[in-house]
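Summary for the funding panel

The consortium committed to producing paired sequence-structure records for every protein in the target list. Below we show the first two records in order, beginning with the earlier of the two.
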Amino acid sequence: MRPVADFPSGERRAVQAVLTDIDDTLTSDGSLTGRAYTSLERLQRAGLIVVPVTGRPAGWCDMIARFWPVDAVIGENGAFYFRHDRASRRMIRRYAKSPSARVEDRARLAHLSERITRAIPGAAVSADQAYRESDLAIDHCEDVPALPAQDIDRIVTMFEASGATAKISSIHVNGWFGSYDKLAMTRLLLHEIFGISMDQARRRIVFIGDSPNDAPMFGFFPNAVGVANVLLHRDRLMAEPAWVTEGSGGDGFAELADLLLAAR
C-alpha cells in the first residue's frame, strides 16, 4: 500500500466512479460526519458516479438510495442494489436471489443465529438484523464488547460449516447462502444501470474501504484505496488496496475526495 497522495494526477483525473464502503470508511467512531457526507455531495455534483457498497441492511439502503447524494447503493455484501429514479419517483430493486429463495434462506439463517449465539458467549445478532432481507449479521464489536479474534474465527467456521458464505467487516461477521459478493453485484449495477463494463473501466473506478470483506474489491480495482484503519486488519486481508489514506474513517474518505476533485 502506497500513500494516496502518490496516486498520479492523470489517473485521478480519469476516474468516473467512486464506490465506497460505509462503516469505518465513511463513518468515524460510528458516526457519519459532515465532512464525509459533504464529500459525497461534492463528488456527485462534479459528475462522478457515487455508490456506497456496504454490508448494511436493505432497510437502511432504501433510505440511503432515496435521501443521500448517491446514484445507487449496494447492500448486504452484494445481495442487491437499489437505485432511486428521482424523475419517475421509482425505486429500482435488483436482487441476487429470488423472493422465494430469500424466504428460505432467512429461515435457515434464523436457526443458525441461535446456534452461533449459544455457542459463543458475547456474540449477538446485530441490532439492524430486523431490516435485513438476505443475510445474518453477528455483532462482534458494534454494540457488544469486542470479541477476541479466535471467537470471530469460530463464527466464520460455523457459517461455513452450514454451507454459508461468511465475511468479516469492522463490526460484524456477515453470513449468507449464495456465491454473490460486493464485486459481483457491482458488476451488475454498473452494466445494467450505467452501461459500464467493469472489466474495461476498472482503472477509471475507485473503491475505498477498510476491512476484510472489502478484499474482493481491493483485489479487482487497480486504484482501490484503503482508509488508514485498514492497516488494523492487514493480517486478515486476502487482497490489499493499492493506496492508503493518511486519515482514518470519514477523514480518509474526504482526503480521497479532495484529491480526486483537485485533479479535475
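The next record, for a separate protein in the list, is shown here:
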Amino acid sequence: MEGGRANWFAPLWAPECRQHPEWRRAAETDILRHDLYFTGPSLRTFVRGRVALVGDAAHAVTPDLGQGACRALVDGATLGDWLAKHRREEAFSRYDLLRRKPFQGVARAARQAGLPTMRPGPAAVRDGLLRAGAFLLR
C-alpha cells in the first residue's frame, strides 16, 4: 500500500464525533475516523427523467459487507451496457429494474451485519465474546 502502510476497516461504536476508548492502543494520527449514519427509507427508483443515480448516490450502504465500491462499478457497467444498446428511457428503466431491488437487499444485510457494532450494548457483548475466545486460544 501507499507509503508502506495498509488499511483495514473496523466498525466500533462510539458517540458521534468522539473517539472510541479502545483507540488509545494506536496513535491518534494513525487512525482515520468516520462516523457512519444509516440512511432511509430506500429509494423507490434510481431514475428520474434524464438522471440515473449510481453507487452511493443511489444506495449508500454501510461498509460492513465490503460491497459499496463493487456495487457502484456494477451499476456503472450495467447502465453503460444498456445505454450502448438501447434508447435512454429503456436503458434507464432496465437499469432500475436490474439494480434497485437486489442492491436494497444487500444494503439491508449490511445494516443487519453492522448492528452489533452500531449500538453500545450489543457491541459490548460482541467484544466480550471476542476477548473470551482470545483468552481460550492462549
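Regarding this second record: Residues 88-118 form the longest helix (31 residues). The helical segments are 56-59, 68-85, 88-118, 120-136.
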